[in-house]
Amino acid sequence: MDKHFYNESSAEKLGWDPTWFGERFYDDKLVRAIKKFQKANRLSADGLCGPTTFRVAWTQRQANIDDYQPVDPRYSNYIVYNNDFTPIEWDKFVLWSERGGLKARKGSYYDYTGRPKRAIRYFVNHWDVCLSSHSCQSVLDKRGISVHFLIDNDGTIYQTLDLQHAGFHVGSERTNRPSVGVEISNAYYPKYQSTYVKRGFGERPLVEGARVHFSELDPFLGFYDVQLEALKALWKSVHLATGVPLETPLNQFGKTSTVYEQDFAYGKRKGFVSHYHVNKKKIDCAGLDIKTLLEELDS
Length: 299
Prior knowledge:
By secondary structure, the chain is α/β, with parallel strands linked by helices. A 6-stranded mixed β-sheet has the order 3-7-6-9-5-14, sandwiched between helices. A two-stranded antiparallel sheet has the order 1-2. Strands 4-8 form a two-stranded antiparallel sheet. Helix 3 runs antiparallel to helix 4. It is globular. The N and C termini lie far apart (58 Å).
């Protein structure tokens, strides 16, 4: 395969250019730069910027956009599942229909309006690699995908669509249809720490030594405490609304699993998982100790 020709054709089709990878031309230097980027992001390092590599690069570029704008939302106190309302014990919760709400774009999810209640087996946790939930929703809209909830840096939770509908958030029809998901705002890369400080959110924890799929990750930004408290409140409400059990896959030592779990992705097991548990190509949310957080809900 002529990699130079492939990358030039891909750039014309998808809308990128060599400067995204620090180069100027469609040549061997660009191929090497793309390989380096792919390795750093745990992608197949072939030097070709296809759709998967493009999406990761595009999302990272979006995280650089300083589009933060304060909003004045109207807060609700319930989540919506097939037009039924379940209370949530969290002060900052905004429905898509309310002032300041964020709404999934029509056509970016499986619409089950008028059908019997969708059977939901598990809840998937993601990090968004964006600087805010508003930026994340913009990325989702442009990619034609969706997720049910967003948790912003200050702990505000946004519900973007009725849980009756299946979002495009896990990676395949088989995993999207039985699941609910949340994108927790976190730009991931330590270089964005100063941006959070500048915006008044303070420093994020730095996660070191986290492992996923048997590999140790480079240090990355963790979640704010307020985001984790919001997440627990959301889990509890979703559990009450859908019956998804407050369980998560464990390893042989009784700790939160750090590997892909086929029984959740393709089987009948139920509970709360991170994206990597149901998709071998994903690493979010590495370092999220779901077991401990669930135990705190019961205490």
